[in-house]
Amino acid sequence: MGAALKKHWPEYLIEAACLGVFMISACSFAALLGHPDSPIQMKLMGGIHQRTVMGVAMGLTLIGIVYSPWGKRSGAHMNPSRTLTFWRLGKVESWDAFFYIVFQFLGGIGGVLVARAALGSWVSHPAVQYAATIPGQFGVGIAFVAEVVISFVLMITVLTIMNIDSLNRYTGLFAAALVATYITFESPISGMSMNPARTVGSAFSAHIWTALWIYFTAPLLGMLLAAEAYVRIRGAQAVICAKFHHMNDQPCIFRCGYAARNSQAAL
User: Can you tell me whether residue 157 is helix, strand or coil?
Assistant: First the structure.
């Protein structure tokens, strides 16, 4: 534990910072698009137009994080379910997975607290609620199934794209497109979380813990199922690394297949 913390603490802090930035963006755009006094909200009048703008904003936020120097270094997991899935696939050391998850939760909570300090009543308003994720009108059961499905599709897409040499640099773009699509069309069903640290980040400030179990279980189940499907089709050796964007000049702390390739090429 001590060795991992001493060696990889920059990556752990980056994971916290990345999700913190994502949550600041989520809260800011939720307030801008959802608060009744916002001129943008008055123009969009809620509904699918508002969700589309929110989806595009969060998709662009994700792109910015993944392709930033921070995202290139830590791999931009920002999600305990994603980190545990890569750990299950043998790409992340156990202590790295543990600290990634701890710092992801700290980053989610911290990002919303920063937004709370900066935006005040705009982000705490009942129409915004710190961008909390809660089940929609179809109930808890449908929300659970929806979270499993969207998490499965995201993870199988990420695994597919990131392990194709000609496409892996675009993994963040594919993931961002799915996030934007989910926010636009799926968020009324489950709140569109796919991420327990993201949900806890909002719930901590909003004091809204409705059906929290969904957001701890469904995303992980969906992503683990995607990993199992991918391995059964392509084989475990097809999973090269755990980074969204690997082909860069940043160090890699994972059990990285690219490092092995480079060593063999050097021989």
Answer: helix
Tokens (6 digits) for 100: 């990634």
**Alpha-carbon 212 to chain mean position:** 17
Model confidence over 32-67: pLDDT tens digits?
999 999 888 777 767 899 999 999 999 999 999 999
Per the structure, the complete domain to which residue 144 belongs is given by: 2-266
Q: How far apart are the C-alpha atoms of 59 and 231, rounded to whole Å?
A: 28
Distance CA(9)–CA(210), nearest Å, equals: 33
**131, HSE (Cβ side, Cα atoms, 13 Å):** 31
- Burial group, residue 23, by CB count within 10 angstroms (0-12, 13-18, 19+): buried
Q: For a pLDDT cut of 90, what percent of the chain falls above it?
A: 88
pLDDT digits (tens, 9 = 90+) for 223-240: 999 999 999 999 999 999
Can you tell me whether residue 246 is helix, strand or coil? coil
Domain count for the chain: 1
Count of beta carbons in the 10 Å neighbourhood of residue 259: 13
Q: What is the domain-level CATH number for residue 188?
A: 1.20.1080.10
Q: Give the C-alpha separation, 34 to 38, whole Å.
A: 7
pLDDT surpasses 70 at 202:
yes
Contact, 218 vs 133, CB < 8 A? no
Quote the mean pLDDT of the chain. 94
The DSSP call for residue 247 is S
Q: What is the pTM of this model?
A: 0.95
Could you tell me the two tokens for 127? Answer: 């129409």
Spatial separation of the C-alpha atoms in residues 19 and 200, rounded to whole Å = 12
User: Residues of 224-238 as b/e, b for ≥16 C-beta within 10 angstroms?
Assistant: bbbbeebbeeeeeee
